[in-house]
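*Target chain*
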Amino acid sequence: MALKSTVFKAELQVSDLDRGHFAEYALTVARHPSENDERMMVRILAFALYAGPDLAFGKGLSSEDDCALQEIDPAGVLRTWIEVGQPDENRIRKGCNKADRAIVISYGGRSVDVWWQQTVPLLARFSNLTVLRLSADETQALGRLAERSMKLACTIQEGTIWLACGEQSLQLSPELLLSSQAG
């Protein structure tokens, strides 16, 4: 019998001063059996960073053709493809070719260095790709915030992220590894 996903609920308040986006979201997040709290929380962080009315969680780990998050406009056009972790060049290429913009939020400690050195030469041709990196300390701290029911407040200003959950709060400063020219 296959293991089932674990459902998490998050009330997310986003105050993105960089984009002028202020909203509240009631999120239902299915954590795949092979996914850990750290990866799930990076997906929630990705949602907060790119939040908007058309952004939704994709099937991600349970589908090779789907990404972690995607933004599809009302006309059915795929605007944003977001991956988390260290996807291979094929997945990144697929996202860049399918969507107006593709974003990778990488994490994984020192293994990100190896992944990035191997992958960056293959990505130079994509003008619609942005790659961010979270440190191992940041993602471990994110993972510790995971609860089946969460109230999260996220403030984003000048590329710095403040995330609060109850009495706990984090400051995150993702490193920009590659900047999209398409926004």
In short: The mean pLDDT is 92. Residues 6-178 form a domain with the Restriction endonuclease-like alpha-beta roll fold fold (CATH 3.10.640.10).
